[in-house]
Design brief:
Distance between the termini: 54 Å
CATH superfamily of the largest domain: Quinohemoprotein amine dehydrogenase alpha subunit, domain 2
GO molecular function, one term: DNA binding
Protein name: HTH cro/C1-type domain-containing protein
InterPro entries: Cro/C1-type_HTH, Lambda_DNA-bd_dom_sf
Shape: elongated
Keywords: DNA-binding
Low-confidence stretches: none
Organism: Pseudonocardia hydrocarbonoxydans
Strand order of the largest sheet: 1-2-3-4-5-6-7-8
Strand content: 35-45%
CATH architecture of the largest domain: Beta Barrel
Number of domains: 2
Number of helices: 6
Radius of gyration: 20 Å
Length: about 200
């Protein structure tokens, strides 16, 4: 695609009007119309700002082919956490929705009952170079204060991810544990088991 087509397509994909994009970029709406019509091209500095506003790289804006992983869909997450010093493994269903490099994710089920430390949550991550997910999470049940950060490494085909979370938890203000994402419960549990066994092996 040519740059004008990329701008128009990506803006539409994000549900933005020409006025919305113009406001983010700091130019007049008529200028965005000219860019999209192919009448003129933005300067490099404006192109960088447009790319940031659209959540794409400058190469993508220029029309270079990319192979962006799309993580949208139903997934399973499994977290290693603790309650009263006892390890809790919590596999449960989540839903992810990706727009550009931003992935919103929300727990569909608790997995572990409330009395066992389970809660529903939501968060947001950014995809970096189709290799890494970094972001945050927060409990979306009023009485639960859990929140923190997440870091995952992605499988090269985007079929699963493993990493760690760090945050405020039932057992303290700075707690960390393993995390895994996969398409099925069996796979996410297997990934978690491997993370834990590898950690034990390296510690012995």
């Amino acid at each position: 695609m040519e740059m004008n087509e990329v701008i128009r397509h990506r803006r539409s994909e994000l549900g933005m009007s020409q006025g919305d994009l113009a406001a983010k970029v700091g130019v007049d709406r008529r200028q965005i119309r000219r860019y999209e019509a192919g009448e003129t091209q933005p300067t490099l500095s404006v192109a960088k700002t447009i790319a940031r506003a659209l959540g794409i790289s400058i190469d993508e804006l220029a029309g270079d082919e990319t192979h962006r992983i799309d993580l949208t869909g139903d997934w399973w997450a499994c977290w290693q956490s603790w309650k009263d010093g006892v390890e809790v493994l919590n596999p449960h269903e989540i839903r992810m929705s990706q727009r550009g490099d931003t992935v919103e994710f929300v727990a569909v089920t608790r997995g572990t009952p409330v009395e066992g430390g389970g809660y529903t949550w939501q968060g947001e991550m950014r995809v970096w170079d189709n290799e890494v997910l970094m972001g945050w999470y927060v409990a979306n049940e009023g009485a639960i204060r859990s929140k923190g950060t997440v870091y995952f490494t992605l499988h090269q085909h985007g079929v699963n991810a493993v990493g760690r979370w760090v945050g405020l938890s039932y057992d303290g203000p700075i707690i960390t544990g393993w995390g895994a994402l996969a398409k099925t419960k069996d796979e996410v549990v297997a990934l978690m088991d491997k993370l834990r066994s590898d950690e034990k092996a390296s510690a012995s």
